[in-house]
Design a protein that fits this description.
Bound molecules: iron/sulfur cluster
Radius of gyration: 14 Å
Strand content: 15-25%
CATH topology: Alpha-Beta Plaits
Order of helices and strands: HEEHHEEHEE
CATH architecture: 2-Layer Sandwich
Number of strands: 6
CATH class: Alpha Beta
Number of helices: 4
Helix content: 10-25%
Length: about 90
C-alpha cells in the first residue's frame, strides 16, 4: 500500500485548542532556515499572506520532527490531550 493511502486511513479527533503554537516573533527575528516548512511529513507548515508561519495542527501525525528541527525554539509543542489527536489505522 502506498504511503498516501496509508495516511488516508488515519482518523483525527480534534481538541478545541491547538497542541502546536508558533511564536512568530521568534521566527521573524531569529530563524534563518525556516526548517519547519520543509521537514513536516504531512506538509502542515506554510506561510500566510503576511509571510507568517502557520501550522495546520489538525493534521498532525505527532512525530515531533518540527520541534526537533526548530533550532530557535519557536514552537510550543505538546501531545494532544488523551483521546485526541491522530488515531492510526493499520488496515
Ligand atoms: S523553524 Fe522554528 S523558528 Fe524557524 S520558521 Fe519554523 S517555527 Fe519559526
Ligand atoms: S509533529 Fe510531525 S506531523 Fe506534526 S506538525 Fe510537527 S512535523 Fe508535522
Amino acid at each position: 500500500m502506498e504511503i498516501d493511502a496509508k495516511l488516508g486511513l488515519d482518523v483525527f479527533k480534534l481538541d478545541k485548542e491547538p497542541h502546536i503554537v508558533v511564536k512568530n516573533e521568534i521566527c521573524s527575528t531569529v530563524c534563518v532556515n525556516r526548517a519547519c516548512l520543509y521537514v513536516c511529513p504531512a506538509d502542515l507548515y506554510e506561510l500566510d499572506d503576511q509571510h507568517r508561519i502557520v501550522v495546520n495542527w489538525e493534521g498532525c501525525l505527532e512525530c515531533g520532527t518540527c520541534l526537533i528541527c526548530c533550532d530557535a525554539r519557536a514552537l510550543e509543542w505538546t501531545y494532544p490531550r488523551g483521546e485526541f489527536g491522530v488515531q492510526y489505522r493499520m488496515s
